Amino acid sequence: MNTNKKTVTPWGDADTKEIIAPGIIYYTTPSHGGFHLSEERQIAMPEALRLPTPWYGEDIDWARVVCAFPDAFPENERESALKLLINVLPNEYEAWSGKTVEPGMSAAREKMLWQEKHANDYQVYSSYPLCHAPAIILSHATLGGREAHTLPPPDKSIMFLATYPRHPEGIHLAHQLYSPERHTLVAKNELKEMGLQFIELREKCPEAFIPANAEVSEDDPDLVLVTCRRAGYLKAPNEYGRRPTYLRIPDDNQEFIVPADEWFSRDLKKLWTITEDGRLAEGENEQEDDSPSP
Question: Which of 49, 57, 43 is nearest to 9 (CA)?
């Protein structure tokens, strides 16, 4: 008879087991952990905090157990659980405690209210720099936002391009909206074409300067400080131009001063480089000789 059989949890076979109190056991696995409640404890859980199964994961749901059975836990854990419940599960907290979560107390509540306010706007859910043009941000947005870990319907989703500096107020990704005044809509085939143009440029002109980042000058808001990498240092993109990666870290990054009106008004669907004298140019044009013909 095998007396060493491991307890099976929703996260795999348990490695460790700790009895916190009668009917409350904490299990760990190689990937996760959490509480398991006995039948009596599960029944005793307040309805507002109870889950359908007696397993309460270590990321968030552990706070339900601590708040429901505070006598089984030290004061510091009770305080942490209460803060987590308010911040992440404000509806459950209000139903359980009978108290109101005031504005500014809960990140989850603020996000929900913001999403409701912008239900008719395109809300960003993913954003990253193009690998062939790191100073350009590719964002995915869906009408009214999306549920976590779900793919939005294609007919309610868009892709758009933005340029660094991405937003003067530094708004967090979850609080970004598509704006036709500030952003450029782009299709998959256009992204692919941009990637192919870069591959050709990198092969023909590996020393071309590609904008990698940009900041508005603190001394003069009409100027933008643009940091560039050589095209040869950038990895060739796939058709979506995923996150920027570099073949190696160059020692010769170059910085240029560009007029802000030129920087922000350029066509983001085109591949831009910067000439040795700091002028914006399309594609490999900056490699052409501007001297007059004999």
Answer: 57
- For 86, phi and psi rounded to 5 degrees? -65, -40
pLDDT digits (tens, 9 = 90+) for 11-66: 999 999 999 999 999 999 998 999 999 999 999 999 999 999 999 999 999 999 99
Residue 123 · residue 177 · CB < 8 Å? yes
Are both 203 and 180 inside the same structural domain?
no
Number of domains present in the structure of the chain: 3
Residue 135 DSSP class: E
Q: What 8-state DSSP symbol labels residue 206? A: T
Identity of the residue numbered 52: P
Give domain status of residue 27, yes or no. Answer: yes
pTM of the model: 0.66
Domain of 37, in residue numbers: 8-97
Q: Is residue 112 part of a domain?
A: no
Q: What is the 3-state secondary structure (H, E, C) of 15-64?
A: CEEEEEECCEEEEECCCCEEEEECHHHHHHCCCCCCCCCCEEECCCCHHH
Residue 104: φ, ψ to 5°: 90, -10
116-136 pLDDT, tens digit each = 888 899 988 888 888 788 888
Question: What are residue 122's DSSP bridge partners?
Answer: 143
Do 79 and 148 lie in one domain? The reply is: no
CB 184 within 8 A of CB 166: no
Identify how many contiguous H helices and E strands the chain contains and give both numbers: 7, 15
Calculate helix-pair angle for 75-88, 90-97, nearest 10 degrees.
120
Is residue 42 within 8 A of residue 23, CB to CB? The reply is no
Same domain, 46 and 19: yes
Residues 18 and 71 both lie in one domain? yes
Residue 292 lies in a domain: no
Question: Do the domain assignments include residue 30?
Answer: yes
